[in-house]
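Lab manual, section 2.4: Encoding a predicted structure.

Procedure: take the sequence of the chain (265 residues), apply the prediction step described in section 2.3, and record the output as structure tokens. A sample record is shown.
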Amino acid sequence: MTPLLRDILATDALQIVFQPVVELIGDKLQLHMLECLTRGPRNTNAARADVMFEYVRRKRVEPTVDRACILLGLHAAAALPGTPDLSFNTHASTLGRDSEFPALLVAMADEVGIDPSRITIEIIEHAHGWDGATFDRALRTLRSFGARIALDDVGLGHSNYQMMIDTHPQYMKIDRYFVHGAHADLDRRAVLDSIAQLALRLGARVVAEGVEDTRDLLPLSDAGIDLAQGYLFARPLAAPELIASGWLQPSAPIAAPARSFACPA
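Recorded output:
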């Protein structure tokens, strides 16, 4: 095991944050679910999540790291008030190479008191390198326990038409590339429209990622997309910040934000 991988898997090295996925209801919004995100060990090359997971994929240890991230995320989520729905990023290669993963996930959720029906597994992948039969069996097993499936980064890379058919997701998450600036870009609006219509035919709901500008809410509404995530609504928050933010308080829908946020470098 390399020193960096040892750091990543250290008990107290990883940091868990949550970002709300909101449902847009006219000019108001409410919490739909929380995406549980992992940040790498501080003061290392893998502190940024994208760098950490690229390293993990190169070392082909996705199942090991996915298990660690989800275990920590479940423990962090169990301490939150209420019973919000949760989503966890998981590599397709984990589902296709780790036959024990679905049962382990359910056991971990049961251990901390989280019903699997509150969980969405958000599938990410950057290269096809797994057993298709094991992958399909994992999806069936997860669904049998009540978990839902989401496909991440729709429109880019390996989140393509084949993956839509193979996964039959309940959620399709459109990459921010197609969302940011859609109010002034007819091509991006066309992509939003086409994915929304495809999702409707496949029985999935669409989540727009990377929403930072109120002007981009109109093309989402025009396309019939009512789930969104991004800095316009909330940045990823550690559990104490999330609790203090008020997102977890049971309430009627709140007014949608009237201003936009710039994405920090």
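Check your result against the sample. Residues 3-246 form a domain with the TIM Barrel fold (CATH 3.20.20.450).
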